[in-house]
Each structure stands twice: as C-alpha cells, then as structure tokens.
Design a protein that fits this description.
heterodimer, A: 2 strands
Chain lengths: 397, 182
C-alpha cells in the first residue's frame, strides 16, 4: 500500500489492528466500541476549539480582543471553562420537576451523538452504513425537539417555557424545508445511504469535482439547507429561543454547572452534525476539491470542510441581527417552503432534459433561470407585504 | 448465538418491557405532561422493536412522525388547553369498567386478526424489504393512494390555516363581524 493511501486509511487500520488483539468472537464488539470512542472523543475536542475560535472571531468582528488571559493567546480558555462548569454548584429550582429537569440535557446530548453514527467522516470511515442513513439522521434530529421542551417545561419558569415553545415552533417549521432540500439529493442519487451519496459525487471533469453544489438545483438546495440548518440548531440569526435581551437564556435559563455545559455541548454538536450532513449532501463529503489534491487523506478534507462551515456560521453570527418571531415564520412558510418545492420540480426537469451537448447547456440555462426568477419574485412579493414598523399584537397589548 | 427466553430473544424482551412500561406509566401517572412523555417512551420502544425486526424504514418513520411530531403535538395540546402548572388529575375516570371492557374487546379483535393472518409455516424467511423497494412500490403500484393521502393532508393544512387566520374581512362588514364575535 502506498503512503498516501496508508495515511488515508490510518484510523481504519488502527481499528483493525487493535480489534485483532482480541478473541474472534469479541472483535466486532471491540471494533464498534473503538469507532464510538473515536467519535465521542474527536467532536467534543472540536467543540472545545470552536468555543475559543468563536469568541475570538466574534471579538474581531466586534473590534475587541476576545479571551486572551488563559494560556498563550487565550487558547487554554476551554480548559478553564470546563473546570469551572464541573466545580460549580448544580442548582435545581425548588418547584422544578426533578427527573425531567435532569433527563432533558442527557436526552439532548445522546440524541445529538447518535446523529454522528451515519456521518461518513472519511473513506471507509462510517460507524453504521445504513440503507436509510439519511432518514436515521432526520429521525434522530426530530427527537431533540422533545428534550428542548422537557428542559423548558420542567424548569417551572416562564422564560424557560416561552423559550422552549419558541424553539419547538421554530424547529418544526424549519424541519420541512430542511427535509425537502435534502430530498433533491435523494432524488438524484437514488439512495438514502450517506456513503452512496458521497460516492456519487466522487468523479472529476478535468480537475473539477462532481459536487452537487455545482449544479443549479444543488446550489439552491445547499443555500436552503444551510438556512434551515441554522434555524434548526438555533444559531444566529435564528437564535430567538435563547434571545438574551428578551428571555434571559431561553429554555436553559434554570440550568447551571455541568448541565448547562451539556446544553452548550449539545448545541455545538448539533451544529457540527448538521454541517457535516450539508458537506456530505452537497460538498462531496470527504472528496478532494481538485483531482490533483487526491493525496491528502479523505478525513483531512472532511474536517477542513467542517472547519470552513463553522467559520461561516461564526461569520454569520457576527454579521446578522436577530429575526423577529413573525419574520421567522413568514420566511419559513412563504419563502423557504415554495423555494424547496420548486427546487424539487427543477431537479426533476434537470434529470429528464438529458446529458448531451445541447441538452447539457439548455438545462443549465433553463434551471438557473427558473430558480433565479422564483428567488427574485418571491423576495419582491415578500418585501411588498412586509410591514417594517412596530408589530401590532392581537391578544397581548 | 443470541440467548433466548421463552423462545424470544433478549433484545426483544428488553424492548417489549420498555414499551409496556411506558404505556402503563402513560395510563397511571397523574401529571398529564408526564403521561405524554411516558407515551413517547412507548413510541421509541415501538420504533426500536421495528428496527429489531429489520424494518428500517418503518422504524425511522415511526421515530420521525411519532416522537418528532405526534408527541410534540400532544404536549402542545396539553399546554394550550390546561396550562402547565396544574399537576394533579384523577388517574381513574368514573367509567373505568366500560373502558376496561372496550380495551379488552379491542385487544381480542386485534389478536384474533393477527392469529388469522399468520402464515401456515411460521418459520418462513422474512422478506427482504429495502427502502428503495418501498419507494418504487409507492411510486408505481400505490401511487393513487399516495396522491389521495397527499391531497387529504393538503386540505387539512389549508383548513388549519383558514381556522387560524385573523378575521380580516370583518372590517368591511362590521355588523357580520360583531355578530360572529358575540
């Protein structure tokens, strides 16, 4: 085996070698445990790095320094934060529902970790290569809504409950465009398996890759997916559920110590997994961006793309102001939903307009024109009916 | 080999116990939100039972629809109708005997139907159903039922929007609006 391919498979070879030390009947079990340990160790490590990068990046955007006291350039800040959250007192409100209050962060973190099971991190590097992997991810993602509700309801705090209701309404609304924008990929690949979706984007034309984002429907789907993903993970500009100027901290107001850290962890891990799926679906997964860069290990490409996605999310957070509740809902149902439905039709048209030199050019022009026209028209119509003054309330005055 | 008990595998027994425990808790707990959350455990147990039977698609859809949507809907309905802060309810209704008879009758009917539909040779190999196979069947053989369900759901959605819409027309005919409000 040549050196690049050995480097590419280094974790797989390591797993096989360690599993080979055990008796045969124990080997599948040991191999699975090793893969799980790899996931459970690496993504929280990225989380620790991301918290520093995010605070530093936001500091830069807001023209200040950010954390710079712990260690050189403040890079040991997550260690200090971790020790702090471990040693802080765990306060449970007197009237809170003890069991549900305890279970909520646990359910959130477990559900979010399960999502990584079907994420292809590199060549041959997926924990469970399921026939319906994508469906598994969305099914698991749906159960995080319940943990948010459990946290908000069990705290017996009106800010918590309001935050939880906002979060659940938002997540349910944006789940529809999230699923529909991913459906386009399933239509074109003909499979729900994440591994097959990555393999379908594997080829190169000249030195350019066959990523789905480089097609009209793929680009529209990617943008819609990322917007829905931001809303689904409660990231800015969709962070109303924890809008600190209105709701203290939303559904985890009454959490302290390590439980608060678990919510923080769950939120960031949710962001990583959904960004990982955006990469898998639209950006070629672990594939190299140019044919001559194939010698870099596949997992290296995946994590580089993941860091790029995180940088984009931090940039958006530092740039965009928070939406209002009515703007959020209008955007979901009047812009996102029609666009995703139209994108399904466009993808179907793309599929049946053929590959040839004539069909190839026409389908590019027709599909791009339809999507662009719909984008401009929907945007114009939405803006015309947008009342940008103070909101009038029907029931609360 | 997987160890068995009464001819049932250990994973099946664990999942069955979890499912039944959730259902019993949903019936007996006093706080309605606790009941809804226990019901969610039952939904999850059912999904895992489907997965245990190698029915990936049904298992995941059970999770997506029941845990992701139905449980949330139940919880919202409880909070919007009764409020969050009233924990005590009687766990037995006044006509529990009638309920027991109805439940027993439903169980007997289902059990009868299931035993009738069992194939003669119980040991026949399980059919290998892939997600792709389900998709092809839905798009070819069963496309008409699928479309009918789609239309039904769209009608329900539009109906819900119309019910929830603010009465904007009342400004044009104030008398009708007032009559409606009274």
């Amino acid at each position: 085996m040549s050196l690049p391919s050995q480097l590419d498979q280094v974790f797989v070879l390591l797993q096989h070698w360690v599993a080979g030390l055990f008796p045969v009947w124990l080997q599948p079990f040991v191999a699975t445990v090793l893969a799980v340990v790899g996931i459970v160790a690496s993504f929280p490590a990225i989380f620790a790095v991301t918290t520093v990068l995010e605070r530093k990046g936001l500091g830069r955007i807001q023209n200040r320094l950010g954390p710079n006291r712990v260690g050189p350039l403040g890079i040991l800040q997550p260690v200090a934060d971790g020790i702090k959250s471990l040693t802080k007192e765990d306060i449970v409100p007197f009237t809170a529902d003890g069991l549900v209050h305890f279970l909520a962060p646990v359910v959130l973190v477990v559900a979010v970790f399960l999502g990584f099971a079907v994420l292809p991190i590199g060549r041959n590097m997926v924990l469970a290569n399921m026939d319906a992997g994508l469906l598994f991810f969305f099914a698991i993602g749906a159960s995080t809504e319940l943990s948010v509700f459990m946290a908000g309801w069990s705290s017996r705090n009106k800010y918590s409950l309001l935050g939880a209701m906002r979060a659940v309404a938002q997540m349910i609304s944006y789940e529809v465009p999230l699923l529909l924008s991913a459906t386009v990929i399933v239509m074109m690949t003909g499979s729900l398996s994440t591994v097959k979706i990555v393999e379908a984007q594997g080829g190169f034309t000249g030195f350019l890759p066959h990523w789905y984002v480089f097609t009209p429907w793929g680009f529209a789907g990617f943008v819609l997916f990322v917007i829905a993903a931001l809303a689904e993970t409660n990231r800015s500009p969709f962070d109303l559920p924890e809008g600190e100027s209105e709701l203290v901290a939303g559904y985890f107001t009454e959490y302290s110590g390590f439980k608060f850290a678990l919510f923080f962890l769950g939120e960031y891990l949710g962001m990583f997994s959904i960004a990982g799926f955006a990469i898998t679906l639209f950006l070629g997964g672990w594939g190299a961006p140019f044919s001559f860069l194939g010698f870099v290990p596949s997992w290296g490409w995946f994590f580089l793309k993941l860091l790029g996605a995180i940088a984009l999310f931090i940039w958006l957070r530092g740039t965009l102001p928070r939406l209002r509740q009515d703007q959020l809902m209008n955007f979901a149902w009047k812009f996102m939903l029609p666009m995703t439905l139209l994108n399904l039709v466009v993808a179907g048209a793309w599929r049946f307009m053929g590959e040839g030199p004539f069909g190839g050019v026409t389908r590019w022009l027709v599909c791009s024109a339809v999507l662009l026209a719909a984008y401009v028209l929907l945007g114009r119509v939405l803006m015309r009916h947008q009342k940008l003054g103070p909101r009038s309330y029907r029931y609360a005055e | 080999m997987i160890p068995t008990l009464f001819g049932l595998t250990l994973p099946f027994l664990i999942l069955a116990a979890l499912t039944i425990a959730g259902a019993v808790a949903a019936a007996l707990l006093r706080n309605l939100v606790h009941c809804a959350l226990s019901l969610t455990i039952t939904f999850a147990g059912l999904a895992l039972l489907y997965l245990n039977l190698d029915a990936q698609f049904v298992g995941f859809v059970q999770m997506l629809v029941y845990i992701g949507a139905v449980a949330i809907l139940v919880v919202f309905a409880i909070l919007l109708t009764r409020g969050a802060g009233m924990p005590e309810y009687r766990s037995f209704s006044s006509n529990w005997l009638l309920g027991l008879v109805l439940a027993a009758a439903t169980f007997a009917l289902l059990a009868w139907a299931v035993t009738l539909s069992l194939p003669a040779s119980a040991a026949s190999a399980a059919p290998a159903v892939t997600v792709q196979g389900i998709g092809v069947a839905l798009m070819t053989t069963y496309v008409l039922p699928l479309e009918i369900v789609a239309i039904l759901l769209t009608v329900a959605l539009i109906g819900a929007v119309i019910v929830a819409m603010p009465e904007a027309k009342s400004a044009k005919s104030p008398s009708a609006g007032k009559a409606g409000a009274q």
